[in-house]
Design brief:
globular, single chain, 475 residues, 16 helices, alpha/beta, TIM Barrel, 8-stranded parallel barrel
Length: 475
Amino acid sequence: MDRRDFIKTGLTAGASLAAAGTPVLAAPLHPQDLRFPKDFLWGCATAAYQIEGAVKEGGRGQTNWDVFSHTPGRVANGDTGDIACDSYNRFNEDIGLLKALGVKAYRMSIAWSRIFPNGRGTPNQAGIDYYNRVVDALLAAGIKPYITMFHWDLPQALPGGWQSRDTAYAFADYAGFMAGKLSDRVDQFMTVNELRCFTDLGHQTGIHAPGLKLAPAEVNQVRHHGVLAHGLGVQAIRAHAKAGTRIGIADNSNFYVPVIETPEHIDAAMKAVRRENAMFLTAIMEGKYLDSYMTEQGAAAPKVRAGDMAIIGSPIDFVAINVYAPSYVRADASEAGYAILPHLPSSPRMASPWLYVGPEVAYWSVRTISELWKPKALYISENGCSADDPIANGRVDDADRVMYLRNYLAEFRRAAVEGYPLKGYFLWSLMDNFEWADGYTKRFGIHYVDFATQKRTPKLSAAWYRELIRRNELV
């Protein structure tokens, strides 16, 4: 039954119930109330190391993830990104998947080591030519590239990696160079993806490349080099790209949902977002480290050179956020003004243990960032979920993923129609891929990938997303 027929049926039934004295909604939703803004941008997202494979083709240099994934015990089942989805060789097929969905945008990343195999020095023309082919094929299909310059795959040859301040400058050189090569056709760039992951997970907990467990002062310095790289990257892209190029960041900030939508708890959520992201997005948007952060870190606080914060706070054209699991906060009488509530054993989650389900985080992520920092535009650079995805008779009926997406998108829609500057949404991910330390054990795609044959199969969620895009409304 079409949604409109369903609503008409509901209206008829409602009249009968009202006549019988049964309470009913006074104003049932009209189908138009489920629509997104007319110019809302729909897309999908991937990352180079997770899909490209071909790690020794086209002059590509070795990355930290090549080393990490080949180190025994680091990645589930000893999986690596050596082949991944073989999208390096199959990108035209994958663009066909995008076109079939009806998306108008594709968020992809560039493998830094395909451009500068050693991180800097002489550029590799084969790598430049490869991304020229990908960009040209996307544009020929009517799909706008949104390019992330760094999505965790750091050239292994860079001395010291992110522990070295010089890596931030090497990143800026690379980002400015590639923006200059592509900005005749690409006008949307994101500097880095998920600062918290490639700094903290790689250097504090050690569960991602390069697998280190550093002291707090060293971790804070790595974080500083990460945000410095972003700021330097903004300036380099601005200097080398054509006029009109838009620059942002893709960040997985910690987002907080007020336990009850009342003024005191909403205020607590705002405080939590600002303070808990002090070393990352707060520093970028405000051009400074909060006094509370520097005081808390004490002797472990990052060493900041003159001019660093002005670079880190370089103006950006949009903020893009990766939104997955929520945290909940309540107001309290502490100095911070809030308390973060723990997830309980009964809290719902998807296949990945960390992926707690809380659709309202979609609304509050957009609202808190908008009210705190008033960005010119916001995009959801990632949202999606892992699911078990059994394939039977050539079908993957991932109704649980459809449930997840429908509920999160209802909350993103709420933010958009309330007037917050949410301009577009990139679903993670176009297809199953190498899921970092989880290897191939967790599937986030709306296309099933048989990693033995590389066959792509659209899941139920792909059909659902295609219909949502066609209507530009929840289905």
